[in-house]
């Protein structure tokens, strides 16, 4: 059995981007983080101590989103590294970081980087 914990489409106002205005004015980003984690014990015990607390996952993402970066790839890499360091029992990481309104003159729902490890 595979089991996962997911923080879906968490929204942040952050200052990521290559263009100086993006770093000065900021913009909206969404992050979805899905981690493979064996929560079978929690399914039996109904005890939060037997699982990975998704509020802690959210806080980790929030902390990394607060650090300005030029590239979304850098943000995603930092989030993945923080997850691996903080929660060594995590077996997989699937991560999507979306810049909601990228300055590229396109009518789209965002620019996304996707990481799987």
Can you walk me through this structure?
With 117 residues, this protein is of the alpha+beta class. 33% of the residues lie in helices and 30% in strands. The protein has 4 helices and 4 strands, in the order βαβαααββ. It has helices at 20-25, 40-45, 54-65, 72-86; strands at 4-14, 27-36, 92-99, 111-116. Strands 1-2-3-4 form a 4-stranded antiparallel beta sheet. α3 (54-65) runs antiparallel to α4 (72-86).
At a glance:
With 117 residues, the chain is of the alpha+beta class.
Key descriptive features of the protein:
4 helices, alpha+beta, 117 residues, four-stranded antiparallel sheet, single chain
List the helices and strands and how they pair.
Elements: E1 4-14, H1 20-25, E2 27-36, H2 40-45, H3 54-65, H4 72-86, E3 92-99, E4 111-116
Antiparallel strand pairs: 1-2, 2-3, 3-4
Helix pairs in contact: 3-4
Number of strands: 4
Spatial order of strands in the largest sheet:
1-2-3-4
Kindly name the structural category. alpha+beta
Bin the strand percentage: 25-35%
Return residue spans where pLDDT drops below 50 for at least 5 consecutive residues. none
What is the H/E order? EHEHHHEE
Helix count, per DSSP?
A: 4
Rg calculated over all Cα atoms: 16 Å
Q: What integer is the average pLDDT?
A: 95
Kindly, what is the distance between the CA atoms of the first and last residues, rounded to a whole number of angstroms?
Answer: 18 Å
**Main sheet record:** 4 strands, antiparallel
Morphology call: elongated
The portion of residues assigned to helices is: 25-40%
């Amino acid at each position: 059995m595979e089991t996962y914990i997911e923080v879906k489409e968490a929204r942040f106002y952050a200052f990521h981007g290559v263009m100086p205005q993006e770093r000065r004015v900021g913009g909206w980003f969404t992050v979805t983080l899905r981690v493979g984690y064996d929560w079978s014990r929690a399914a039996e015990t109904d005890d939060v101590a037997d699982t990975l607390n998704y509020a802690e996952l959210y806080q980790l993402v929030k902390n990394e989103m607060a650090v300005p970066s030029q590239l979304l790839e850098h943000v995603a890499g930092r989030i993945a590294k923080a997850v691996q360091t903080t929660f060594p029992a995590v077996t997989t990481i699937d991560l999507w970081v979306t810049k909601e309104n990228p300055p590229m003159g396109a009518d789209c729902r965002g620019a996304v980087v996707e990481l799987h490890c």
